[in-house]
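Students often ask what a holo structure prediction actually looks like on paper. The answer is less mysterious than it sounds. You provide the chain, you provide the ligand, and the output is a string of discrete structure tokens encoding the 3D arrangement of the protein together with adenosine-3',5'-cyclic-monophosphate.
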Amino acid sequence: MERTLAIIKPDAVRRRLTGRILARIEEAGFQIRAMRLVQLTRTEAEGFYAVHRGKPFFPGLTEFMSSGPAVVLVLEAPGAIGRWRELMGATDPSKAAEGTLRREYGTSIGENATHGSDAPETAAFEIGYFFPGVELARAGGVG
Ligand code: CMP
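The corresponding structure tokens follow.
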């Protein structure tokens, strides 16, 4: 089993797409192990995306991610990191494959509806960022 951090970004929450995206997550076979609605401060968004600090899109990215509520989730499945990235599609919605979440719900490379961890080390950091010290529900327990 593997875990990944997923975010339903402020653009998607604002457009009331949360329920539809959650349905797609469950239909794809992920177990939701943790979930919160968060309103990030600019500083929290900067901390989360620290690896991108210095890139030209960093100020816009952190402004957008702190512009309204977002849903953060821990998803579990065999190969969860890759499978969630596959379901999301390419970062740029116009390049994402047909049927992917970003193709369907994203409107630009910045406002691309969802986020996912890109590697096990990133997943550990990102899960810890939003769910520090939380004992996540385990198989055989909740869910
Ligand atoms: P995400 O998977 O959340 O990781 C970093 C985010 O930066 C990415 O999705 C995009 O939404 C955003 N971003 C904005 N502009 C760019 C860009 N030019 N290249 C890559 N990512 C970008």
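The CA atoms of residues 5 and 127 lie 6 Å apart.
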